[in-house]
Amino acid sequence: MTLGSHEGPANQADSGPLPMAPRLPAPKDAGPTPTVPAPTPEQVQKQPWMHKLTPGEKPPQFVLFSFDGAVSKQHWDKVLPIAKSKNAHVTGLLSGVYMLADPDKSQYQPPAGLKRGLSDIDFGGTRQDVASRIGYLNQVIADGHEIGTHYNGHFCSNGTQPSVDKWDTAAWNAELAQFKQIVDKSRAAGLNLPADAVRGGRTPCLEGNWDQAFPAMAANGLVYDTSKVALGVQWPTVQNGLYEFPMPEVRVPALGKQVVMMDFNLWYSLNQAKNEPWRAADFAQIVLDTYKSVHQAALNGNRAPIVVGNHFNEWNGNAFSTAMEQFMEFVCDKPETVCATYTEVIQWMQLQDPAVLDQLRRMPAARNWQ
């Protein structure tokens, strides 16, 4: 994450990979199916795929580009023109502390007894930096992209303790309340984000005790999470009152091994996340080929939404952002493929016969290996 001279989590190489895939267990409690506002007539006119499937019709192949942190202007400046040219929408998962200037960091009270003003990622720089950030995030919103939450202080298990994997429901409630408070202040300063627009997110480092975290997410009005990991590409299911859009574990063809399809995991699988920028072109091609093979497997298989998890980063000579941008250019206007936000996919699912969705969920996960 580039914040001028401030470096966020995306430029800090962790000591090890993000979690490999714990297989998604059957949810203990599906809970009520959450809902989002129905698509507007104008939206349906612009999105002809936004309709109830006719008998025998296949669903669109959704691709969900999502970016943790989500405030780097230099990366939005690359993504927005590609998305506009391909009629694509993406989701930025905002880290709340990036909307607090350094002098205002004491406004953030982390949960679980952590010290006020503490964060394992940088705050937002100067007040002018934050004001500028509001300006370009307004362009992101105006272009139809979604803003979700990546929570605030990014307390992963290899950092400050107690980390998010140890938090109880009260701690998650407090963290979400802090996120809302920060966004409300940003809105008062000019951020054009409707009060009900933040509908889901991804936890720091894909970590959390889900039995504790999910009740807080639902209680705070979230309708989806995209933090868990599953083997292959799977349809979202309702778990504890939220849609879970899992990160897929996939095969990297060039390596012949399975990896969670998140940019940092891919980097770690290639060279243990060492900075070797002279290998950038090779790494970008390997990652692009992986993305393409996953898309082909899902398109020819269960048509489950493909979650492409990324940070706005410059790791290893910008290899992973380059691969993501190239894949967006390649895939978003392919036949029967739609690059959409999480909310848009849920809107589409709400239009379908529940029996059809059940049938799709019973299909084998799409895997780019045999």
TrEMBL record:
GO terms for biological process: carbohydrate metabolic process. Residues 1-53 are annotated as: Disordered. InterPro entries: CE4, Glyco_hydro/deAcase_b/a-brl. This is Polysaccharide deacetylase. It comes from Lentzea flaviverrucosa.
